[in-house]
Amino acid sequence: MFEFSPQDMDITMRLVIATFLGGLIGIEREMHGKEAGFRTYALVCVGAALMMVVSIQMYDIYKGSAQVDPSRIAAQVVSGIGFLGAGAIIRFPQGIKGLTTAAGIWTAAGIGLACGMGQYHPAVITTILALLILVVFSKVNRWFGGKDV
Predict the structure, then answer these.
(1) Residue 57 and residue 73 in contact, taking contact as beta carbons nearer than 8 Å
(2) Do 113 and 127 touch, CB atoms closer than 8 A?
(3) Which distant-in-sequence residues (6+ apart) come within 8 Å of 31 by Cβ?
(4) Please, are residues 49 and 20 in contact by the beta-carbon 8 Å criterion?
(5) Of 39, 18, 27, which Cα lies nearest the Cα of 135?
(6) What is the pLDDT of residues 8-64, one digit of tens each?
(7) Looking at residue 106, what is its pLDDT?
(8) Do the domain assignments include residue 35?
(9) Are residues 48 and 87 in contact, defined by beta-carbon separation less than 8 angstroms?
(10) Which of 77, 79, 129 is nearest to 104 (CA)?
């Protein structure tokens, strides 16, 4: 029979919180008809959290017997998500679309990495700030005659 240890419960909490926070941002994007929405943001965030948890676990397992740097996986997540975000950017003769989506996906990955580290406070604050940027700043931008990209 499988039993959850306190460490398993902590890891589960990290992944669930990452899913929830990424999903919050995704709901806002979904409400505005963007291609990357609820599921995409939740997956990016929980995936980044898992990679951070695995990185920490790898460090704990191999410390002392091998040179392990837990920040290396996080750095690769940042690069990999940058590549994924680049795929969301589309160039048209009239301009560029998808920059906000790409930035949002990158931010969701950062939130996931923070959750994976157990850094809930910065993850929640960043989620609030991201939602503020997406909702309020969008209105301010339009008020000044700007356009959403």
Answers:
(1) no
(2) no
(3) none
(4) no
(5) 27
(6) 999 999 999 999 999 999 999 999 888 888 999 999 999 999 999 999 988 888 888
(7) 93
(8) yes
(9) no
(10) 129
* Count of positions (residues) in the chain: 149
Q: Is residue 148 part of a domain?
A: no
Instruction: Find, among 17, 114, 125, the residue nearest to 74 by Cα.
Output: 114
How many alpha carbons lie under 13 Å from residue 70 in its C-beta half-sphere? Answer: 18
- Quote the tokens at residue 46: 């929980």
Contact 90, 96 (CB under 8 A): yes
- 129: Cα within 13 Å, side-chain hemisphere: 10
Count the domains in the chain. Answer: 1
1 domain residue, yes or no: no
Backbone angles phi, psi at 96, to 5 degrees: -120, 140
How far apart, in whole angstroms, are the C-alpha atoms of residue 17 and residue 137?
A: 25
Strand runs labelled E in 10-145: 90-92, 95-97
**Six-digit token string for 55:** 């990185």
pTM of the model: 0.83
Residues 6+ apart with CB under 8 A from 40: 26, 29, 105
For 34, the domain range is 6-143
Phi, psi of 63 (to 5 degrees): -60, 135
